[in-house]
Amino acid sequence: MLTGYAQSSDVAQARFIFDQLPQRDSISWAAMIAGYAKNGHADEALQLFVEIMEEAYDVFEEIQQKDIVSWNTMIVGYARQMENSSFSQST
Q1: In the 3-class helix/strand/coil scheme, how is 11-71 assigned residue by residue?
Q2: How many angstroms separate the CA atoms of 39 and 66, rounded?
Q3: Contact at 8 Å (CB) between 49 and 84?
Q4: 48: Cα separation from own chain's centroid
Q5: Number of domains comprising the chain
Q6: What are phi and psi of 85, to 5 degrees?
Q7: Which end of the chain is less crowded, N or C, counting CB atoms within 10 A of the terminal residue's CB?
Q8: Cα separation of 6 and 84, whole Å?
Q9: What span, in angstroms and rounded, lies between the C-alpha atoms of 44 and 33?
């Protein structure tokens, strides 16, 4: 349902459903971010991306033995966040 609302330009209803989810997965995060971006809500898309990065950091901090995969995942995530932040500031 979330994806359907997001794709049909009803981002308010999509966000309502997103906020009610007891557990959000990569599909729900991606659907909501894409819905915002597709419907001209770049600031909201970026803010949601920042939120997912903050949640990812919390999970990363809980990892007892960080390996190259976990480190690379965080580095790529932060690099994309910086890239998107720089893009939104230049437009």
Answers
A1: HHHHHHHHHHCCCCCHHHHHHHHHHHHHCCCHHHHHHHHHHHHHHHHHHHHHCCCCCHHHH
A2: 38
A3: yes
A4: 5
A5: 1
A6: -65, -45
A7: C
A8: 21
A9: 8
- Tens of pLDDT, residue by residue over 21-73, are 999 888 899 899 999 999 999 999 989 988 988 888 898 899 999 999 989 88
* Burial (0-12, 13-18, 19+ Cβ within 10 Å), 28: middle
**Predicted TM-score (pTM) of this structure:** 0.72
Quote the domain boundaries for residue 70. Answer: 2-90
CB 29 within 8 A of CB 48: yes
Closest CA to 73 of 85, 86, 49, 56: 56
Q: What are the φ and ψ backbone dihedral angles of 8, each rounded to 5 degrees?
A: -95, 20
- Centre a 10 Å sphere on the Cβ of residue 46 and count the other Cβ atoms it contains: 18
What is the C-alpha to C-alpha distance for residues 35 and 40, in angstroms, rounded to an integer? 9
